[in-house]
Amino acid sequence: MSPEKLLPTISGPEDLKKLSIKELAQLATEIRARIIETVSRTGGHLASNLGVVELTLALHYVFDSPRDKIVWDVGHQCYTHKLLTGRQKEFARLRQFGGLLGYPCREESEHDVYNTGHASTALSAALGLAVARDRQRANHNVIAVVGDGSLTGGVAYEALNQIGHLRERLIIVLNYNEMSISPNVGALCRYLSYLVSGQPYLRIKEQAKSVLRSIPRLGWPLIRAARAFEDMIKKTFFPGIFFEELGIRYIGPIHGHSLHSLIEALEHARDYPGPILIHCVTQKGRGYRPAQLDPEKFHSASPFNISTGQPLSREKTMSYSRAFGEAVAELGRSDEKIIAITAAMTDGTGLNQFAEENPDRFFDVGIAEQHAVNFAAGLAIAGLKPVVAIYSTFLQRAYDQVFHEVCLMDLPVIFALDRAGIVGEDGPTHQGTNDIAYLRHLPNIILMAPKDENELRHMVYSAFRYGHPVAIRFPKGPGLGVSLDKEFRFIPAGQAELLQPGQDLLIAYGHVVNIALEVARKLQEEGLSLAVVNARFARPLDEIMLPELARKARVIFTLEEGVIEGGFGSAVREMLDRNQIYHPAFKSFGLPADVYPVGRPEEIRKVLGLDADSLAAAIRDFYQKQKLL
Ligand SMILES: Cc1ncc(C[n+]2csc(CCOP(=O)(O)OP(=O)(O)O)c2C)c(N)n1
To answer: What pLDDT was estimated at residue 240?
Structure first.
């Protein structure tokens, strides 16, 4: 290997083309070291990125980005791509405020074709790009890179259906590593692993071919005859090879860390006149032992010590996810009807404990949010008690199922909306800021949000007793560290909590109640008196306590960590209207329906004016403008 570092000499993909395979292998080593060093400081998707280093090098070696279009599914595996496309300096500030996004970002580079963050979108987008190319009489390549986890999402099959129908020239790279975040699940995953287990067959085929080739004159006719035979064999041994039967040429399995094999397969695919899928077998976490051994933990890692793989800081208080998961596990011990469902996020949603205790009552459905909700509706109709734990941003996928399958029939399905509010380092695709607005207008649904992890437990308990659809939203990260009540307590739907009396009114929804208390404390020192209410519910609202307090107040403020348009503040305004309370001045604090910068949640809150200091200043200003100060 060359003693000189190669990575600094790569300012764009064209620089790769001059390198030998040996040099590319050296580059792979340097890239891995760079990714490990950076993610150990910034946090990020380590295991997925270590798994695609050779694949990304081969893609940029064979294809000609940005002329050729590479579309990444989910996009969490784009770090090597970023390093090869002119962003090495900026890479040091990956996922930091004002730094690089951890996902493809069109605003960052012309090499990032498609902004993503949610799964299973690459095939549809790539087909759109391929159809547009042909319409525009261009001849570049379009390549979709999709993981086996993302291939569990229904939209991927809608795309395959049309790809096989249109037969456009399109290259699909299936990055198969047997992992979603957790080990991948489902019949299709089993099918892919069955194809991989056919490797001995492929080796035998290659050996047979080289023997035949060596027979003078007769060799090639024999190979041609063998191809017809191979087709027959394939059909017999691999009945209905899924992709081929759809009209998509299948190549594989390919060793996804062999640059030679990858380059050969991609060059073949480049010249193929129709849709073609290359099945690459890669290893998540490749090249960093802790990530290889525990790819789930290193799927999305917080900053860690490189030599031990241990996180640099441990959360001192229990996370909301864990509080939720423990509550479901506890309740599940005495109620056999409780069923827990996740869409490929067992660990992230805190459901692992329930899963371990009740493997027959726990379902990981794959990255299939729509199906998860629909499936829960079926269980609820039959009298079971499903709880579907999905991040706020990903439930957007299943909006129609929540409406059509659950709310219209008033089925008692519980939605646990984790990562609700500002999520931070994962950037715009992962903010959980829209759920209040997208659920509030649906029939029959009860919307709740706890002020802390203890109240979350009582909400989970209560939700199982309402007999209606319920969505509980709670934020990413640690709770307040409050002590947890031993006994569960029932909270009647729509019952708010007055936390502090005062002349005017500040009504907050969810964990931002704690920011509201801080704001009220700051303003109290200046002589302003605000009653603080923990609304607990965005629907139904407390139509006894809130109108009563509102009638006495000169000013009403609402606070939520969600978009203002159609959000909690709008609900309060409508409630005042219903109760014919028109006189108090009114102001809602929340988030603009916008794309927020990447960074830590505290940094984003500050930029958006949702930290205690900014809120106190805005409230003071409002009083002044209303001439109440
Ligand atoms: C719609 C949606 N649901 C859930 C997720 C969370 N998520 C991010 S990556 C991932 C696993 C993806 O697995 P795969 O496509 O195989 O990629 P790998 O990480 O294995 O390379 C999941 C479930 C998401 N991004 N989008």
So the answer is: 37
Nearest CA to ligand 1 atom 21: 48
Q: How far is the CA of 43 from the centre of ligand 1 (A)?
A: 17
Catalytically annotated residues: 284, 369, 397
Counting from 1 in the atom list of ligand 1, the atom nearest the Cα of 146 is: 15
How much distance in Å is there from the Cα of 482 to the middle of ligand 1? 33
CA of 74 to the centre of ligand 1 (A): 6
What pLDDT was estimated at residue 223?
57
pLDDT at 215: 61
CA-348 nearest atom, ligand 1: 6
Helix ranges (H only) for 43-148 are: 46-51, 53-62, 79-84, 122-135
Query: What are 171's strand-pairing partners?
Result: 143, 276
Domains of the chain with bracketed CATH: 7-293 (3.40.50.970), 320-473 (3.40.50.970), 497-625 (3.40.50.920)
Retrieve residue 20's tokens: 């030998």
Mean of pLDDT values over 271-285: 95
**Tens of pLDDT along 114-129?**
999 999 999 999 999 9
Distance CA 356, CA 162 (A): 39
Q: Which of 128-142, 202-216, 449-463 is least confident?
A: 202-216
Say if CB 321 and CB 413 are below 8 A apart. Answer: no
Do strands 446-448 and 470-473 pair parallel, antiparallel, or not at all (unpaired)? parallel
Write the pLDDT tens digit of every residue in 68-110. 999 999 999 999 999 999 999 999 999 999 999 999 999 999 9
DSSP, residue by residue, 114-140:
S---SSS-HHHHHHHHHHHHHHTT---
Residue 599 zone, left/alpha/beta (φ > 0; ψ -120 to 50; rest): left
